[in-house]
Design a protein that fits this description.
Layout: H1 2-9, E1 27-30, E2 33-34, E3 42-47, E4 64-68, E5 73-80, E6 83-85, E7 97-106, E8 109-118, E9 124-137, E10 140-151, E11 157-164, E12 167-168, E13 175-178, E14 186-197, H2 199-205, E15 217-224, H3 227-240, E16 264-265, E17 270-271, E18 273-279
Parallel strand pairs: 1-16, 2-17
Antiparallel strand pairs: 1-3, 3-6, 4-5, 4-7, 5-6, 7-8, 9-10, 10-14, 11-12, 11-13, 11-15, 15-18
Length: 291
């Protein structure tokens, strides 16, 4: 902020900055292949848009999406605009390899994309979670979610997310972390997430940001990530914020991807999941009941 103030004070000439539109359109892939047989496996495909564009992100419709586990392709059906879902019961298994194929029309051109992934062994076991009411700040209600569990030996990378009554937090409200603070250790009451209820969040993200009530179900999910996918999300997080690490360093011009065949963003990852849930009995409970 000081640098900006000095620059403004030393220059009185009006500067007209012209920003050009993005010179290409990317396919954007969101979603994972997990080992949860009871959970629908799905991907979301959209087109990228310019940073200053105010229109909604355009979905990629009419694509042909399949995942092959070596025994033949399993085709995903478009269940809503840009959302492709596998037949119920299809899921990944740790140790198996998978090949993703996408034929889609992006920016008016027919394109073909591919990616490969191997599902690692689970790196983390979530045994239980609990919640505590933190307080109210500027009329916003905040809860912290803590976890009990165990991290396996060796390097581990995780995508941690929370769902309220089955409504999952989106990528930009999820947590990407490695295990450097608890490598190979038992974990007790480790704070892993914050639930923040605001009118703005409810408007933008929907019921996942609702004010907690008695009977609500909070679910925490930890997905074990391959290192490349962790690096993608870390780069993605840097691009989503106004500052980079280290401070004042340049942000990555583009996030890494394992999709080949054209301009694309996202990462095809096959991830085992460990999860636990808790039922809310007192939304205003100030401390954890689980010991």
């Amino acid at each position: 902020m000081l640098i900006c103030a000095v620059a403004a004070a030393s220059c009185s000439e009006e500067i007209d900055v012209k920003l050009k539109d993005a010179d290409r359109t990317y396919l954007v892939l969101e979603g994972f292949l997990t080992d949860l047989a009871f959970q629908p496996q799905s991907f979301t495909l959209t087109e990228s848009k310019g940073y200053f564009d105010k229109e909604e992100v355009p979905p990629v419709c009419g694509a042909v999406v399949s995942v092959d586990d070596g025994s033949g392709p399993v085709y995903y059906r478009e269940t809503s605009p840009g959302v492709y879902t596998a037949p119920f019961g299809f899921h990944g298994k740790p140790g198996n390899s998978y090949h993703l194929s996408i034929d889609a029309t992006v920016a008016g051109e027919e394109r073909h994309y591919e990616a490969d992934a191997t599902m690692p062994q689970p790196g983390f076991k979530v045994e239980a979670i609990d919640y505590a009411y933190t307080g109210i700040m500027e009329a916003d209600s905040i809860w912290t979610i803590s976890m009990w569990g165990e991290d396996n030996p060796g390097d581990g990378f995780y995508h941690a997310s929370v769902a309220v009554n089955g409504n999952s937090y989106p990528y930009d409200l999820s947590l990407i972390l490695d295990d450097k603070y608890f490598a190979g250790q038992k974990i007790t009451a480790f704070p892993v997430a914050v639930l923040e209820q605001t009118a703005h969040n409810q408007e933008v993200y929907g019921p996942c940001c609702k004010f907690l009530e008695k009977g609500d179900i909070i679910t925490f999910m930890a997905l074990t990530l391959p290192k490349g996918c962790f690096e993608f999300f870390f780069s993605f997080a840097n691009n989503m914020t106004s500052s980079a690490i280290p401070f004042f360093s340049s942000q990555p011009a583009n996030c890494p991807t394992n999709l080949t065949g054209g301009d694309a963003m996202g990462w095809f990852a096959a991830c085992p999941v460990s999860m636990a849930s808790v039922i809310v009995d007192d939304p205003m409970r100030p401390d954890y009941k689980r010991k």
